[in-house]
Each structure stands twice: as structure tokens, then as C-alpha cells.
Amino acid sequence: MVDTLSFYNSLINNSIDFFTGVPDSLLSDFCACVKENSPKEKNVITANEGNAVAMAAGYHLSTGRIGCVYMQNSGEGNAVNPLLSLCDKEVYSIPLLMIIGWRGEPGKHDEPQHVKQGKVTLSLLEAMGIKYIVLSENYAEELSAAIKYIKENSEPFALVIKKGLFSPYKISKAKYDYPLTREAALKVLLGNLQKDDIIVSTTGKTSREIFEIREANGEGHSNDFLTVGSMGHTASIAYGVSIGTDKNVWCIDGDGSFIMHMGGMAVIGSKLPKNFKYILNDNHAHESVGGQPTCSASLDIPAILKACGFKDVLVAETEEEIKAGVNKLKDESGVAMVLRTRQGSREDLGRPTTTPIENKIALMKKLGE
Ligand SMILES: Cc1ncc(C[n+]2csc(CCOP(=O)(O)OP(=O)(O)O)c2C)c(N)n1
């Protein structure tokens, strides 16, 4: 195991002092350490991984320093464009240290969406011409070699991180005392939907909790699309579903997911079919991967949704407010609801026991009825 703080200090001692990225469960201790030890302006949790690459590039332009970008391997896709058309040696040749959490490493048990991404993690880097090393416990020489390479070649280099490499590091979470947790709010929400309503829910624990609530209620899962990967695209999936059905489609999004591809809502909001019902669970955090903050506490999300085209946006914190909100959304079009929930989830929260393909087939059958 690598001592997380020592590793962080090695980066600082090598003049790598600007961190940016999207948090990852596998890198949660590293992300926590960066959050706790870096000045606020030197650790920017971005909307998506591509933004982080661009921000680190900008930091290099003004300081000549190497920026550090952290991400889960799922974020490689978001980063491809600025890696190839901004940082690449054949374009602006910008030095960059990437730290990539390797979910779904071949041979290790993981969820289907991570297994696929894990298989192609290294070959994606190779296809982009990005050199990398899978970091070991004896990282000192590997890190020196990586930094030497970045300086000599003025291009990105990736440290690929296996599960369990970093030692535990505790994060101090901002306290928001909303009455309900996400799971409690979801229970109320699901309890007030109609039998035929369709749910498209976001990546992370939201979908896992919905799966378990359905199990506990003995309701089956055929009404639900659990967006296990594709973070940030839940609203677009739900909008696409709503075009092809008369059933009400309830999109249950998260603040991190919404912010990741906020532009999607600008387009969806200009259309807003009456069966598209949008609910955003705002806990001001990437709760599913360790509770690192999103910027939502300083955003006026209802105002953003209104500016995108919703005529009204309700804010619900209590059971009664959620019930009233569901009733209003059910009857009216162009109304959205923002749930404010506090952080926290069950230690024993499981994962869907159906596969994504089983989920898809059951949902398509339901939609075809
Ligand atoms: C492209 C991409 N980047 C990062 C992740 C890792 N990830 C999974 S869930 C999650 C947090 C989602 O935050 P939010 O939408 O606010 O929901 P919460 O977990 O707070 O309920 C992250 C960062 C991912 N799956 N995909």
C-alpha cells in the first residue's frame, strides 16, 4: 500500500501543485488527501474530465508548471478530445500528469460497465499515444521517471492506479442538515409514482438504492432504466425514452451528473415533452464515490432549470414536499423538482443483481406494452 500523504507530498516536492479532476471511488483516498491539503484554488473538481485536462493545460500556460488531472478510467472518454486536440505533442504539446483509477482491471471482479472500461483502459491510452505506468507500491522511481518524461517530451503521461493502492485518508464533509437521506427521499418518491411510470435513474448509488427499494417492495425492475455508466447522460437517455412512449418518464438525476453535461438540459429544456418528468437529487456532493463536493451549493439550480425552459421548479426537502411535488409534476408539464438531501448511504447497500442487458430487455418489453 502507498501512503497517500507521502505520495501527495512527492508530487508537491516535484512542483506539481495544481490538481483538477472528477473524483473516483478507487481514488477516493487520494482525492480526499488532495482536498484536505491543497489550497482551494489549487484543487478544482471539474464538471467533467475533459474540463480538467483543459484547466491543467491553462495552468501550464500561465505558470510553466505541470498540472495533475485525476479521474476514474470511465472519464477517459470525456478527456479524449482535449488530450488529442489540445495537449498532444502534434498540437500544443502541453505537459500533464494524469492519475487514472483502474476500475474493472482484468481479472478483478467489478460491475459490467467497469469490466468493459477496464479492458480498454491501457489500449485507449496507447491509441492516443499517451505513455503510462501502472503504479506500484515502490512508486518513487516510477514517479521520478514519469516526471522526467513529461518534462523532456512536454506531453501528457498517465499513472494508472490499481484498486487498494492508496492508504485510507479521511475527508471532512460539508454538513448540510436536510431532513432526508437520498434513499429515504427515493422511497417516498417511488411510493408515490403510478404503476406504469418509467424511471431513468442516474449513475452511482441512486440507481443502486432504487434497485433495492424495488426489491424490498417486491415490484420487479421492468419500469426502471438504471444508468450504471454514462455519467451525466441520464437526462438525455430519459428524454430519448420519452419521445417514443406515452408513459410518464421520470428522470432521477444527481447534481454531479447534471453538472457534468449541463449543456444537455439546454436542449432538452427547449423541447420538454409533457411526459418528461425531471427530478434532480441535490446533495451538493459526489456522494457515491466518497462525498467530494460538487459546486451545486453555490449554484441556483432551480434558476438554471427555469432558464433552460421549465416553467416552474419545486424544491423539496421533506416527505410532504416530495409527495406534493410528485402530484404536481404528474398533472402538469414543464415542472421539475429539486430534492435537497443530506449525504450518507447504507454500508450494506448492494448492487443490481440483474445485468444491464436483462434490464434493457425488460424495460423495452414494458415500453412496448
Ligand atoms: C465519466 C465518469 N466520471 C466519473 C465517474 C465516477 N462516478 C460515479 S458516480 C459519481 C458521483 C455522482 O454524483 P451525483 O450525480 O451528485 O450523485 P450522488 O453520488 O451524489 O448521489 C462519480 C463521480 C463515472 N462513473 N463516470
Task: Please give a handful of descriptors for the protein shown.
single chain; 369 residues; alpha/beta; Rossmann fold; 2 domains; six-stranded parallel beta sheet; elongated; binds thiamine diphosphate
Notes on the structure:
It is built from 14 helices and 14 strands. The protein has 369 residues and is an alpha/beta fold. It has a six-stranded parallel sheet with strand order 2-1-3-4-6-5, sandwiched between helices. Strands 8-7-9-10-14-13 form a six-stranded parallel sheet, with helices on both faces. Helix 3 packs parallel to helix 4, helix 7 (182-191) packs across helix 8 and helix 11 (263-269) packs across helix 12. The longest helix is centred in the first third of the chain and has 16 residues, at 112-127. Bound molecules: thiamine diphosphate. Residues 22-24, 72, 74-75, 78, 182, 202-206, 231, 254-257, 281, 283, 285-289, 294 line the site of thiamine diphosphate.
Quick one: how many beta strands?
Answer: 14
What are the distinct ligands in this entry? thiamine diphosphate
CATH architecture of the largest domain: 3-Layer(aba) Sandwich
What is the CATH class designation of the largest domain? Alpha Beta
Can I get a quick summary?
α3 runs parallel beside α4, α7 crosses α8 and α11 (263-269) crosses α12 (301-308).
Topology:
Elements: H1 4-13, E1 19-21, H2 28-37, E2 43-45, H3 49-63, E3 67-72, H4 76-87, E4 96-101, H5 112-127, E5 131-134, H6 139-153, E6 156-161, H7 182-191, E7 198-201, H8 205-217, E8 224-226, H9 234-243, E9 249-254, H10 255-260, H11 263-269, E10 276-282, E11 285-286, E12 292-293, H12 301-308, E13 312-316, H13 319-331, E14 335-340, H14 356-368
Parallel strand pairs: 1-2, 1-3, 3-4, 4-6, 5-6, 7-8, 7-9, 9-10, 10-14, 13-14
Antiparallel strand pairs: 11-12
